[in-house]
Specification:
Layout lengths: L1 E4 L4 E5 L7 E2 L4 E7 L2 E6 L4 E6 L6 E2 L4 E5 L1
């Protein structure tokens, strides 16, 4: 499984790709909010969302695992 990690610290604003969703490389897996800016977190490659480890409203640090692709 391939991890999708947070590129920065922030609050999970949105999770547009729930478990089971097929995503392409670069598709948004999550959207983080930091300093009133929304930053999409892209999929590192194409795959299917196998697991989501966070919920909307959670605070994450840079490098935290948000989800896994298979």
């Amino acid at each position: 499984m391939i991890p999708v990690t947070a590129p920065m610290a922030g609050v999970v604003y949105q999770l547009p790709a729930p478990v089971g969703t097929d995503v392409g490389e670069g598709d948004s897996v999550a959207v983080l909010e930091s300093m009133k800016m929304h930053v999409p977190v892209p999929a590192p490659r194409a795959g299917r969302i196998k697991e989501v480890r966070v919920r909307e409203g959670d605070f994450v640090e840079e490098g935290d695992i948000l989800a896994f692709l298979e």
